[in-house]
Model the fold of this input.
Amino acid sequence: MASPWLGQQSLGSAAVAMNNKGFRRGSFQSSTSDEDMVEIAGGALDFSITDDDPPLDREMLGGFSLYNGGGMNGTSQMMDFLEEPLPGVGTYEDFNTIDWVREKSRDRDRHREIASKSKESTWALIHSVSDAFSGWLLMLLIGLLAGSLAGLIDISAHWMTDLKEGLCLSGFWFNHEHCCWNSNETTFEDRDKCPEWESWSQLIIGHGEGAFAYILNYFMYVLWALVFSLLAVLLVRGFAPYACGSGIPEIKTILSGFIIRGYLGKWTLIIKTVTLVLAVSSGLSLGKEGPLVHVACCCGNILCHLFTKYRKNEAKRREVLSAAAAAGVSVAFGAPIGGVLFSLEEVSYYFPLKTLWRSFFAALVAAFTLRSINPFGNSRLVLFYVEFHTPWHLLELVPFILLGIFGGLWGSFFIRSNIAWCRRRKTTKLGKYPVLEVLVVTAITAVLAFPNEYTRMSTSELISELFNDCGLLDFSKLCEYVNDFNSTTGDDLPDRAAGPGVYTAMWQLALALILKVFITIFTFGMKVPSGLFIPSMAVGAIVGRLLGVGMEQLAYYHHDWTIFSGWCSQGADCITPGLYAMVGAAACLGGVTRMTVSLVVIMFELTGGLEYIVPLMAAAMTSKWVADAIGREGIYDAHIRLNGYPFLEAKEEFSHKTLAMDVMKPRRNDPVLTVLTQDSMTVEDVEAIINETTYSGYPVVVSRESQRLVGFVLRRDLIISIENARKKQDGIVSTSVIYFTDHSPPLPPSSPSMLKLRSILDLSPFTVTDQTPMEIVVDIFRKLGLRQCLVTHNGKLLGIITKKDVLKHIAQMANQDPDSILFN
Amino acid sequence: MYSVVIAQAPGMLTQHSWENMKILWLVVVAWCVLAPPAQASKSSEDIRCKCICPPYRNISGHIYKKNVSQKDCNCLHVVEPMPVPGNDVEAYCLLCECKYEERSTTTIKIIIIIYLSVVGALLLYMAFLMLVDPLIRKPDAYTQPLHNEEENEEARSLAAAPAPTGARANTVLERVEGAQQRWKRQVQEQRKTVFDRHKMLS
Done:
């Protein structure tokens, strides 16, 4: 009789290895059938008779027959108070790593339970249907919320940016553009001037001309910038310190399975939304895209609380957060597909197909919501949407690749200097004055930005102007070409000679480039919400435009050169400077973030021109090559490493020939591994171990002598359970014996009642042998998302490898300081 | 009606219908927020047809704006008075670009007012916490651990883990007070992590 059960167990332990203890009964109920057991009985028999210790298998047998109503329940007086899991058991402490395997198996158990119950009653059926549906409903809600918040941010940021320059008299809530929306007094030359919009000098001294008016406007501009940034940094400091920065490095870390409590909470959401508007409108060299991803993830996390399925399971919640990140990029760039790909390529750690479809849906809903709010009044989702379809020539790939090289160089330069500056801020006294730092940088930015009209305008507007292809309809300095109306036929505009306006614009843009390049290094990482997509794109767009105009003039004056002959004859429209700006923007963004696919998709969704995919791809690829050759990390990975977050990079190969025994704890000179025994330790002993050590989990063995592994128990679960038992369970005193087996061990009748903690024991901890190569161990950690892995030798427990140990080992192998990994 | 159902349903279902109710409420609220801009009748100042006409021969460029429906949004309807004689109209209009645009002034107004009131409320609350709160409240327990933070940090994080709800709050006010204290502690913790120890986000 015994052998089939044993057989079931020993093979079952592999099959059910993913099953967490807490839901064991449910899984057994559905998976056990007699045929299976008979089939596998013979092969597995020898497992049970190899050792002197009573095999673990019997407990399983006991548990099962108990369930079936069989005898063997001699311990019936023991209260099974842990039938219902305690609140808190199975949760994690702040700054801890989650165990993906455990979370996923818990979700599967839950699902199985619901599925098996659904046949019992109509209510249960409805419950199971709504449970299956809840993921999509959650996506809908996330999309709606993220889209609405993005609309709010767009509209208010636009308004506040213009507030630095003046005020609308026909309604203070209008920005400059909407103020002049219906005015009939706008002219072709000054198309943004109308009597309703008054600059501060007009409001204060009554006229807008002259040196004094200029100084007054200058002063008001700087003053408003300082006020906005001061408010932003004070709100961040006062209410939600986690709201600063771009948030993408932290979200990457969280998605890889780390707990940062409060990082995606209500207050962070409110403060990040509010201060993002302030930071963007203060004219600092930062963008709203990265923070919008954080905002969308906050929405996702908060909305998760509405559904039990996601509230209680950290792995499921991370699937939702991946989708929310997609929704965030979707509204930030008006690029839904780009958002999904961004989540896949850059942010997410675990991205199954189901999440892909959910992200797709969330991105769709978010984009739709934002579109229906119509924040820019142009029926587009972004300010710098452009639409042009002029063809490009194969030879132009050369300047595009040059732009790619520049993008890569700039990207690695930016990463190096920004990281150096951030390290300085982290370690020196500079970090003691966050408010002052923000104010100083804002003051410098505003003072230098105002005189140059290309830095005075918001960065989005600048990018929009740089992307724009000059037509006859445009009247700006950048489009001041020498027009020859005789040759003009309709829309087809040939290359023209640059007028004086273009030359002025060129050196102004060059100055703007210098300012942007340097000030962005100091801005990114300050204690206000700050993204770097927009500044990087601006740098690239300026360089691209400069190069584009240069090429255009070269082709215009030297169309007889052999390289231009054939495709750029006189009077032909062959070079589009706007396209160069676009390619440059993509190259710089690619150099900083090291994105490729998602970047190109975002760019062509922005521009609506499928014919520019090849130039964009060429630039993105070159820029990634160049940047990777100089420094291998993107900006987000560099920040992750700077802060020492426990992020196990899935992209890099581990290629050192070390073994698991070289990495595991305890090391050779260390004291032996702290273990619990399954049925001989008292509450006192366990509490002493908990107090003496700081490990977050303990292996449970059969006995100290044999060191045969039973399972793994987490410190937090242990603390909560013991505390709870002392409070609520009668007769639990310091000398009570704790046992993890199914049956209480035989003890003299005079001893105090015992504490059964089997329900918090993880019976299927992951083990490797001590001779396993580290490359396999690293792969296991990456692919399964393990938190710890036990090391055995000849079947006996030898040590433990945690994610932190793996990270430290990788850092050590890469000649970095292994102690930089701060959190475990 | 709902409450009757809830009272009769067994435990798991009760929780579930609560969830459904919450979701329902959320959808209703979201609809209320989103619906007005969509339904708001397009007032005259919310639509325009804007035609930009570039310089042509000796006529300088000009911008025309008019309140016409989308199908009438073309150069012939909007450009008035026509600056060129009849036979040139076609050539002139070919150069012009007309765009029909919509906006919602109500949405803009509501959003700006919401935003300003949120900022105002936050600033008021911050001022309250910084100026008034220390006056009406004597220095109490929760500020104490700040001074000797480093030593007993571990102990505190352990103690805080199972959410100290020993003294059950009776009144709503006390519960709000408790929540506020918890929140303050959290912010303090975050501030230490980010601003003082520079462990994160630097």
User: Anything to note?
Assistant: The two ends of chain A are 47 Å apart (CA to CA). Residues 1-83 of chain A have pLDDT under 50 and may be disordered.
